[in-house]
């Protein structure tokens, strides 16, 4: 067999391996979502929101670049984590997403269900400012600048079901809570938007 033919066969074999490497070294296929308050992704999965697209089958996959709010998903695509496959989550639906009833100043238990338990930097919870427009896609300017609840993940692997207790801010009317799960060992975070009625 000639040297050129051997080189060609090795090149073809190497090219065949590259796609398999890309498939097997990508991020895990499942991660986590919030069910208290119920996120938009969770409502889609449970059927209490319709016309949701692919997110209805994978509410745990709203993953995007970490570093929010300085980095991360662009304004208008925060609820989908910047992932165009889940763009339905960024549609405000005229403020008609199902909402969880809460009270300003109440103690509340935030819950995540994790389908892949990544080593964690933190969990952070943001809320929209007074006077924000629930008929518009979520932007950084619509959120209070600091999270109202911060939980240090201590670079540990959390359990499959995670609960955080905190006090809700004093708000009234319709708002949105953005939950951000910052992963320690990847460049990504998980984003969940939950509509609430104070």
Account of the protein in words:
Residues 31-196 form the Chitin-binding type-4 domain. Pfam families: LPMO_10. Residues 1-30 form the signal peptide. This protein is of the alpha+beta class and 198 residues long. The protein is 15% helix and 31% strand. It has one domain: chitin-binding protein cbp21 (Coagulation Factor XIII, Chain A, domain 1).
Shape: globular
What number of structural domains do the residues give?
A: 1
Distance between the termini: 77 Å
Biggest sheet character: 6 strands, mixed
Tally of helical segments: 2
Tell me the number of strands: 9
CATH 2nd-level architecture: Distorted Sandwich
Which sequence of SSEs, written as H and E, runs from N to C?
HEHEEEEEEEE
Query: What structural class should be given to the helix and strand makeup?
Result: alpha+beta
CATH class: Mainly Beta
Q: Could you tell me the mean pLDDT?
A: 88
CATH topology: Coagulation Factor XIII, Chain A, domain 1
CATH superfamily heading: chitin-binding protein cbp21
Strand content: 25-35%
Uncertain stretches: 9-29
Overall radius of gyration: 20 Å
Q: Helical amount among residues, as a percent range? A: 10-25%
Keywords: Monooxygenase, Oxidoreductase, Signal
Organism: Actinophytocola gossypii
Protein name: Lytic polysaccharide monooxygenase
Pfam families: LPMO_10 (PF03067)
